Fold this protein.
Amino acid sequence: MKPESGYISIIINTQAGASSNKLTARKFIEYLHHKNFKTKIDYTESLAHAQELASEAAVKYDCSMVIVAGGDGTIREVVHGLEGSDKPLMILPCGTENLLANELGIKTSLKNAISIFESEVIRPLDLCKANDKFFTSVGGIGFDGDVVKLVNDQRKGNITHLHYFWPIWKSFWGCNFPKITVEADEKTVFSDRGIVIFGNISRYALGLPILQIADFGDGLLDICIYKCDSRPALLLHAFMTVIKCHRRSKNVIYKQCKKIKISSENLVRTELDGDPGPALPLEVTIIPQAVKILVPPQGKPVGMRRRVFRIFK
Ligand SMILES: [Mg+2]
């Protein structure tokens, strides 16, 4: 990227995450100015506003690329706004969990941001859609839908990992494991009590490798269905996932496909990228190679140990 290629649109969510990451974003902007890049900085007022700003940047002939500083929600909206554009997107992660940034191997240091910007390694990123809602990373039905609902109900501004403790505890003891029916590419693959996780990245919250072989640019959705009707079964699934053996379990169905349909006769909550998702029935599809994204050279997903360590840092 050269200064004469055009200005850089920078979309910032000031509400998101830790202050140290915001400092990195500010220092990176100083670096761009120091290197004579012209920037247009916009602060988001809402998620819809983030999408609008990205859509505007996508059609501006003199805009060379877009940078987003925010959490998973803001990043998702910017990806949606940029869909189909050939302008590269760079992420400065500023959220609590940073699912997508962690999957791409993006760290929160200034050094890492500069390295990503200067090396210009670009990869395609698919965008997922569940009914009329877009998401980039992971969706869930059942247990984690309950957790996200509880976190969201008590949410006032920024959240940290601690905000998840009681919702996980309450959902664990309150979960009644309703029957869920799942179709993958028009074939029914499951109709029983369980938990369903689907999406496009290999690492879930805390780096759990649930969708272990997912690739964010292969045009396919990954889905992992845990057959589960009790709390001990849930704990066993969690353990098998931590040690990366869950896909071998006879009580787990793992598929890659282009379309997923999920329904239930019960009230079952859903979540998309850590926000409450639409009510069932759900139809999930994928838009292959929706945007071009800057990734670190030799970047690989951040693992569980490092993510847990970060919480207590
Ligand atoms: Mg994929």
